């Protein structure tokens, strides 16, 4: 593990560089293939509407994967993330062709023992927050 | 019908070993649009102290969701999978997943409860190498909408 961020250089409240992730149907099809989650609510609009959704929705795990990039791009080594958890509170609706946009901000919320920090994220789309209490424990240098 | 709480604590047999390949890691990283070279270039991974490319943080879902199918489709448990949504997810790492790992998952039912008419089940997949070295634990909570006894809706 080789994080490039030093524990002594961060404080509670230190903000990580925010990022914005566009989500198109193509992203969901690729994610379905790579992850093995072929639930049609993530690629078939007819099916999604039939089961009561407004449209195709992103895999929660896709959104979870995008969000943590704010942390892994910050520390550079993804192995620095020793714990990562989210609740899936609201779906990211992905109409075709315009898609959706997920915005992610994050800040250091707590300095822990062993040069670790807790990072709290905020993950939103048009509809508001899409992940509940997304947080990561990160091993810093 | 509400799920039977007697399943809490039940552990399922270990899965067949999953061999983590460099190209699968690359495919997953491409799918999430993450350009970090540590997922693709063994040399970049070695610069960070890893013996080979490592997998993205959420990659173990590929292994744990497959393993959790033992629970989800257990006819004795009787979960209505057509109503299931993913409610929350947690990964707790001992070390990153690396190319070349041969990983086995052991799934345990951690909790079952009924909340607002929804059956809620939490499973834990302990993922270790075939030699028994713990790598990561993946906890998933699934909610089956409107199947618990309390609400009585369908």
From TrEMBL, chain A:
Belongs to the enoyl-CoA hydratase/isomerase family. This is MaoC family dehydratase. Residues 15-124 form the MaoC-like domain. It comes from Yinghuangia soli.
Automatic annotation (TrEMBL), chain B:
SUPFAM superfamilies: Thioesterase/thiol ester dehydrase-isomerase. Residues 7-137 form the FAS1-like dehydratase domain. GO terms for biological process: fatty acid biosynthetic process. One of its GO terms (molecular function) is (3R)-hydroxyacyl-[acyl-carrier-protein] dehydratase activity. Gene3D superfamilies: Hotdog Thioesterase. It comes from the Bacteria. Pfam families: FAS1_DH_region. Belongs to the UPF0336 family. This is UPF0336 protein LZ495_35930. It comes from Yinghuangia soli. The lineage of its organism: Bacteria, Bacillati, Actinomycetota, Actinomycetes, Kitasatosporales.
